[in-house]
Design brief:
Elements lengths: L1 E3 L8 H6 L6 E5 L5 H12 L5 E4 L6 E6 L2
Parallel strand pairs: 1-2
Antiparallel strand pairs: 2-4, 3-4
C-alpha cells in the first residue's frame, strides 16, 4: 500500500510516523519533512517500541518510510 502525502499535525515527523500501520509504506516529500527530522523521529519512536525502515536511495525529493513493528 502506497500513501502519498499522508502528513499529520503540521508536518510533524513523529506524529506522521506514529499514525502509520504496520507494513504501511509512506513516501514523504523532502520539502515537507527533511530526512534528518525523519531519522530523529525514528530514533525517538524506537524507545516506545516502534520500528521503521527509512531510505532515500534512488529517490529524488522524497523519503521512503515503512513501519516494521
Amino acid at each position: 500500500m502506497i500513501t502519498q502525502n499522508n502528513l499529520v499535525a503540521k508536518f510533524s515527523a513523529t506524529a506522521t510516523m506514529r499514525c502509520m500501520k504496520v507494513g504501511e509504506l509512506n513516501m514523504i516529500p523532502t520539502r515537507d519533512i527533511k530526512l534528518g527530522a525523519i531519522k530523529k523521529a525514528k530514533d525517538r519512536l524506537k524507545k516506545f517500541g516502534f520500528e521503521f525502515y527509512v531510505s532515500e536511495a534512488g529517490l529524488v525529493n522524497e523519503t521512503k518510510v515503512i513501519r516494521l513493528k
